[in-house]
UniProtKB/TrEMBL annotation:
Residues 190-442 form the ABC transmembrane type-1 domain. SUPFAM superfamilies: ABC transporter transmembrane region, P-loop containing nucleoside triphosphate hydrolases. It is a multi-pass membrane protein. This is ABC transporter. PROSITE patterns: ABC_TM1F (PS50929), ABC_TRANSPORTER_1 (PS00211), ABC_TRANSPORTER_2 (PS50893). It is found in: Cell membrane. The chain crosses the membrane at residues 203-226, 277-294, 300-321, 379-403, 409-433. GO terms for molecular function: ABC-type oligopeptide transporter activity; ATP binding; ATP hydrolysis activity. Residues 476-711 form the ABC transporter domain. One of its GO terms (cellular component) is plasma membrane. It comes from Coprococcus eutactus. Signal peptide: none annotated. Coiled coil: none annotated.
Length: 730
């Protein structure tokens, strides 16, 4: 899956996280054991951990020896030495092999313990009666009688060994050990305290280790997720920058923004959760199950009920909420789209008094998203209480079953506590997995949406082996060019052939929507021609690198677009190395210097985002200055003079004529007056050239041009325009 693929470059961190998770899980799984031991050994057994007595009265030693088989006897003999003071002592070697000694003496100890239990019991029994008859105490009982009792006891003890859990058996044996300790005044309190203190230190250590691991995991996981997100944003951004208009239109700007922000954020969030949970849950549940099996409480079936309940619950919630989860991103897209459109169009909305309708439109999108989110959240709110209920119900069930087992003497309280904790851990880990399975689909939708951008083929891109356009003269030739917008059935341009030379101005005029802007936009390769070719100095622009072609073009778009910064930074946008003089000259040519110098900070005056603090005409003049400052070989004015008044229009073109005399200039215009002095005028009608020539020629040869001219100029103006040639203008 895509989300996992994103983690590939960070495999080292993922391994570190996995190791830390194992450590965290180890601590997490050990703690219930410690709690159980704290109760069973620390409290119930006075801190005595092993049943093998460290010191045992000689008589008890011998009696127990009498109960043992040959193998057990050998161990007993090997690890105990006679202290010649009436006691036997466990040797150092014995301490090292304590488990071996424990299992050898456990049965014997229990048989030794049994008569004491009988004697202390309130009820009458054989042993009590026998001792009374002989007039002796249990400690004075002769060895033959012990042997006799041993024979009788053997089947009972064997039966107990079969039915008891290991922990419980050990605990019972330790109770027997205490009889040996009673005989020499063992200091139980000191033993218990030292055990409890040591256990507390160990538990504290474990908890600290666990906390440290968790913090480290959080830290590394967050870093990885942030890097994944950063990488994705970069990839998306780089791709979008390379997109031609066709791809941008396909996705829509709003969706591109949601994809590179909200979608990436989804992935970042899920990546953190995934790194912390997806690995942790299986480690914890498998570890928990192993522990539970070893615990010997024999209540595994309760865990399965718990897991089944959680899986059914989460499964049901998922089925209900999943469809809504999946459309969430599309709805976020819609809200972004509507708010973007409304925010950028506020002046028009106000001017047309459409506030209410637009508010409704926003409300609609907003409500859809809210409804969807609320539904999902409502469904999910059920999860927590039901889960809590399941957990508590399972705890009660365990306690109920365990109570019977404790009563029957086959389970200890501590083991029950540990069992409950392990069960909770296992259920929690299944919960984590189910939560992930809820979150993953949404994130995977987000990941797919991002991948869709990354995988989109850019329609306009450098061909393999594309050459650089070096020191061009600037001869532009359109050869039989046809063009259709992607997805459109009909061509917008057809049979376009003309040549534009350096030092000359080619003007394009025609009715609205006839394809003028499209024609000039093909030159910087905003789109590629569908048929025919465009060449610069005889080289097809598709065989040249886009960067080198664009570097030689100064493009002034129909709508002046400025960037936040200063006036100077905007003029230098295409020529970062332009000197102050160049910037000033460009501003003078574009007739922008007057209004710039009037400003308090002149060229350093701030320009707001999108050029919000300058007028439309000023914006257009700055856009013209920006193109000129580049000193390009080819200058394109896409209807850039319409926002200027007649006087400024003339002044700009005059200044251009004076200073820019070796560039190939294209002017898309609506006004005939703007193009009167052009060297070549192309008259476009429905995407084809219907007239080509100078103003004078076209007035005579082209009906369409004559109609346009007559609709804009008075007969006297037309007559004047045919008169003397004025000084050079573009
Ligand atoms: N991105 C686009 N996708 C599809 N069709 C488009 C796109 N841009 C423009 N068109 C269509 O192509 C045709 C030519 O548009 P173009 O902008 O080139 O016209 P124009 O002559 O510059 O118009 P105007 O003088 O009004 O600016 C129009 O019919 C327009 O609807």
């Amino acid at each position: 899956m895509q989300i996992f693929r994103n983690l590939k470059p960070y495999w080292k961190s993922v391994i570190i996280i996995a190791l830390l998770l194992v450590l965290q899980a180890y601590c997490d799984l050990s703690l219930p054991d410690y709690t159980s031991k704290l109760i069973d050994t620390g409290i119930q057994n006075y801190g005595i951990e092993n049943c093998s007595p460290k010191q045992i009265p000689e008589k008890a030693y011998k009696v127990i020896d009498g109960f043992m088989d040959d193998d057990e006897k050998a161990v007993w003999k090997k690890y105990y030495k006679d202290g010649s003071d009436g006691y036997y002592y466990l040797t150092e070697d014995g301490e090292k092999h304590i488990d071996e000694v424990d299992s050898a003496c456990m049965k014997g100890l229990m048989m030794y313990y049994y008569p004491y239990q009988m004697v202390n019991s309130d009820e009458d029994n054989e042993i009590k009666a026998g001792l009374d008859k002989m007039g002796i105490t249990l400690d004075e009982m002769p060895e033959e009688m012990w042997a006799q009792i041993g024979e009788q006891m053997k089947p009972t003890v064997d039966g107990m060994l079969d039915s008891m859990g290991e922990d419980y058996m050990e605990s019972t044996a330790i109770a027997c050990t205490r009889i040996c300790y009673d005989s020499f005044g063992y200091d139980y309190k000191a033993g218990q305290m030292s055990y409890l203190k040591w256990a507390a230190v160990k538990m504290l250590g474990m908890s600290l280790l666990m906390a440290a691991a968790a913090v480290l995991i959080g830290l590394v996981a967050s870093r990885v997720a942030a890097s994944v997100a950063c990488g994705l944003r970069e990839k998306v951004f780089n791709k979008v920058i390379a997109f031609s208009d066709a791809e941008i239109n396909k996705f829509s700007t709003a969706s591109l923004i949601t994809r590179s922000t909200n979608d990436v954020q989804q992935i970042q969030m899920v990546t953190v959760m995934m790194l912390r949970m997806v690995l942790y849950a299986p480690i914890l549940s498998i570890g928990g199950i192993v522990k539970v099996v070893g615990n010997g409480a024999g209540m595994g079936w309760v865990i399965f009920i718990g897991i089944a309940a959680v899986v059914i619950l989460m499964g049901t919630l998922m089925v209900i909420a999943m469809p809504k989860f999946k459309v969430m991103q599309t709805l976020v897209d819609r809200v972004n789209l509507v708010s973007r459109e409304i925010l950028t169009g506020i002046p028009v909305i106000r001017a047309f008094g459409r506030e209410e309708r637009e508010e409704e439109r926003f409300d609609e999108a907003n409500k859809d998203l809210t409804k969807n989110t609320l539904f999902v959240n409502r469904v999910m709110t059920f999860a927590m209480p039901i889960l809590m209920f399941i957990m508590y119900a399972i705890s009660i069930l365990i306690e109920w079953v365990a109570a019977h087992k404790i009563d029957a003497g086959v389970l200890q309280v501590g083991s029950m506590t540990a069992f409950i904790t392990y069960t909770m851990l296992i259920i929690m880990s299944f919960l984590m997995l189910s939560m992930m399975s809820v979150m993953l689909p949404r994130a995977s939708v987000a990941a797919d949406r991002i991948q869709e951008i990354i995988d989109t083929d850019v329609t306009v891109q450098d061909a393999a082996g594309a050459k650089k356009l070096e020191a061009p003269r600037g001869v532009v030739k359109y050869d039989n060019v046809a063009f259709a917008y992607p997805g459109a059935d009909e061509n917008v341009l057809e049979n376009i052939s003309f040549e534009a030379k350096p030092g000359q101005t080619t003007a394009i005029i025609g009715s609205t929507g006839c394809g003028k802007s499209t024609l000039v936009q093909l030159l910087p390769r905003f789109y590629d021609v569908t048929e025919g070719s465009i060449t610069i100095d005889g080289q097809d622009i598709r065989d040249l690198t886009m960067e080198s072609v664009r570097q030689n073009i100064g493009f002034v778009p129909q709508k002046g677009i400025l960037f936040s910064g200063t006036i100077a930074s905007n003029i230098r946008f295409g020529a970062p190395d332009a000197s102050d003089e160049d910037v000033k000259l460009a501003a003078e040519i574009s007739q922008a210097s007057d209004f710039i110098e009037e400003k308090e900070h002149g060229y350093d005056s701030a320009v707001a985002q999108g050029g919000g603090n300058v007028s439309g005409g000023q914006k257009q003049r700055l856009a013209i200055a920006r193109a000129i400052a580049r000193k390009p070989k080819i200058l394109i004015f896409d209807d850039s003079f319409s926002a200027l008044d007649f006087k400024t229009d003339v002044a700009v073109r005059k200044a251009l004529g004076e200073h820019v005399n070796d560039s190939t200039v294209f002017i898309v215009a609506q006004r005939v007056s703007t193009i009167l002095s052009a060297d070549q005028i192309l008259v476009l009608d429905e995407g084809t050239i219907v007239g080509k020539g100078t103003h004078k020629e076209l007035l005579q040869t082209c009906e369409e041009y004559r109609q346009i001219a007559e609709s804009q100029l008075s007969p006297s103006e037309i007559a004047a325009s045919l008169g003397t040639d004025s000084e050079r203008q573009v």
